[in-house]
Amino acid sequence: MTLYGILFYLLSAVVIAATGVAITRKNLVHAVVYLIVSFFGTAMLFYLFGAPLLAAFEVIIYAGAIMVLFLFVVMMLRAESSRESSLPVGQWLPAALFCLIYVVVATAIAVRTPGLNAPLQMLTASPRQFAIYIFEHHWFSIEVVSMLLLIALIGALSLGIGKGAEDNLKDDVK
């Protein structure tokens, strides 16, 4: 096994473990931190695959901007973590069943895919070429995503301000 193979499996294990831990944490701040570790691992995988621009996007956009936004939302809403079990035992069975079905189907697709050993040709594009392509062909999608992020930010602010105003009114009455 080559050094790149070892790095790939090591980074993949880190990404899977960090994501698994992130979705099982009851403390939302801890979940966000583990998700940031997962995003950094994904960025390193992109870099390992020869896509440094995507690695930079992963760090800047996901690990940077979106996770900071999530932390602000968590802090503004003051979400309390519950001490009770997150899922009752009756809900674990369907989740485990769907997970098993997914693993079986994914394995069957991977094993039965013809041409699996065919070498892939590497395509390269400069960041300028990538930006020109994106903004010529997908400009509307970029505008829609930016509007959705703006609406989500405004909604989070209004929820945070509304909750803070109610708390201030209760303090003034006392």
Task: Summarize the model shown.
It is globular and about 65 Å long. 80% of the residues lie in helices and 0% in strands. It folds into two domains: 1-81, Four Helix Bundle (Hemerythrin (Met), subunit A), CATH 1.20.120; 125-174.
Could you characterize what this model shows?
- With 174 residues, the protein is mainly α.
- It has two domains: 1-81, NADH-ubiquinone/plastoquinone oxidoreductase chain 6, subunit NuoJ (Four Helix Bundle (Hemerythrin (Met), subunit A)); 125-174.
- The protein contains six helices and no strands.
- Helix 1 (3-24) packs antiparallel against helix 2 (28-48) and helix 2 (28-48) packs antiparallel against helix 3 (52-77).
- The N and C termini lie far apart (69 Å).
- The model has no long low-confidence stretch (mean pLDDT 81).
